[in-house]
Design a protein that fits this description.
Blueprint (H helix, E strand, L loop, with lengths): L1 E4 L2 E4 L13 H11 L5 E2 H7 L4 H9 L3 E9 L3 E9 L1 H8 L1
Antiparallel strand pairs: 1-2, 3-5, 4-5
Helix pairs in contact: 1-4
Length: 96
């Protein structure tokens, strides 16, 4: 996509994530972890605690194998928590 910003020509490219489900060992491992977590898992736990890349997690969501659910907690302040959960399609994918 090309645009002009403040008189300078800019070219913006978006990285393309794979949209066709191509199962990989990393996908299967992430889906199995999500399947064991009935309430879902926070993305940071998947990244920092288990070593999954943001690209892998985003690809699972884009392919409908996982979804992101947002919960709002109201304490002294409002806190939003996003959890990744496996979908029915994700469960079918790990069954093979």
């Amino acid at each position: 996509m090309r645009s002009i910003l403040w008189g300078y020509r800019m070219t913006v490219s978006r990285p393309q994530l794979p949209r066709k489900p191509r199962s990989s060992p990393e996908w299967r491992q992430a889906l199995q972890l999500l399947a064991r977590s009935p309430r879902g898992t926070i993305e940071d736990v998947l990244e920092l605690g288990h070593g999954f890349s943001r690209e892998t997690l985003a690809t699972l969501v884009l392919n409908g194998l996982a979804m992101v659910m947002t919960e709002t907690l109201s304490l002294d302040a409002t806190i939003k928590i996003e959890r990744m959960r496996i979908t029915d399609a994700g469960r079918r994918a790990i069954r093979g």
